[in-house]
């Protein structure tokens, strides 16, 4: 009985730890999305740069998350691509080319959609028909 209680406690602790990490990543991703929206909507170059810097910091934090083993490499690759796009956008802003910077920022959303598809559960149709 004592061993059963210990086993249940250790399993629940592992489960809680895993869900907490997923929750932390979810919060971080939402904060990235919020910073992205602020950057896209802003007309002030300093504000856009500030939001880009914030996104880069949050993405670096996200790269430390525990991704599924089979998706880890692709997930990190996607995050690195987003950082590259953000850095390119920042360079355009520093040159005073805000329109080009905002155009470049829109690629972040395309990358987001592409790499989020990796983490979506399969649909009922995919489960039934492969």
Task: Set out the fold topology.
Blueprint: H1 2-41, H2 45-62, H3 72-94, H4 98-116, H5 124-129
Helix pairs in contact: 1-2, 2-3, 3-4
Strand content: under 5%
Mean pLDDT score, rounded? 82
Give, in order, the helices and strands.
HHHHH
Query: What is the CATH fold-level name?
Result: Four Helix Bundle (Hemerythrin (Met), subunit A)
- Taking all Cα atoms into account, the compactness measure Rg is 19 Å
Q: What coarse outline follows from CA principal-axis ratios?
A: elongated
β-strand number: 0
Helix fraction, binned, reads over 70%
Distance between the termini: 43 Å
> What's the tally of helices?
5
What would you call the structural class? mainly alpha
GO cellular component, one term: periplasmic space
GO molecular function, one term: electron transfer activity
GO biological process, one term: electron transport chain
Keywords: Signal
Brief write-up:
By secondary structure, the chain is mostly helical. It contains 5 helices and no strands. Helix content is 82%, strand content 0%.
What does this structure look like?
The chain has 130 residues and is mainly α. The protein has one domain: Four Helix Bundle (Hemerythrin (Met), subunit A) (Up-down Bundle). The chain is 82% helix and 0% strand. It contains five helices and no strands. α1 packs antiparallel against α2, α2 packs antiparallel against α3 (72-94) and α3 runs antiparallel to α4 (98-116). It is elongated.
């Amino acid at each position: 009985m004592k061993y059963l209680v210990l086993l249940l406690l250790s399993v629940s602790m592992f489960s809680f730890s895993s869900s907490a990490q997923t929750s932390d990543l979810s919060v971080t991703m939402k904060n990235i999305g919020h910073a992205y929206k602020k950057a896209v909507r802003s007309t002030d170059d300093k504000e856009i740069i500030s939001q880009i810097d914030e996104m880069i910091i949050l993405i670096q934090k996200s790269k430390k998350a525990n991704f599924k083993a089979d998706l880890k490499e692709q997930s990190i690759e996607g995050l690195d691509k987003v950082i590259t796009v953000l850095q390119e956008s920042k360079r355009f802003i520093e040159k005073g080319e805000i329109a080009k910077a905002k155009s470049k920022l829109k690629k972040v959303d395309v990358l987001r959609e592409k790499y989020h598809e990796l983490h979506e559960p399969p649909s009922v149709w995919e489960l039934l028909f492969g």
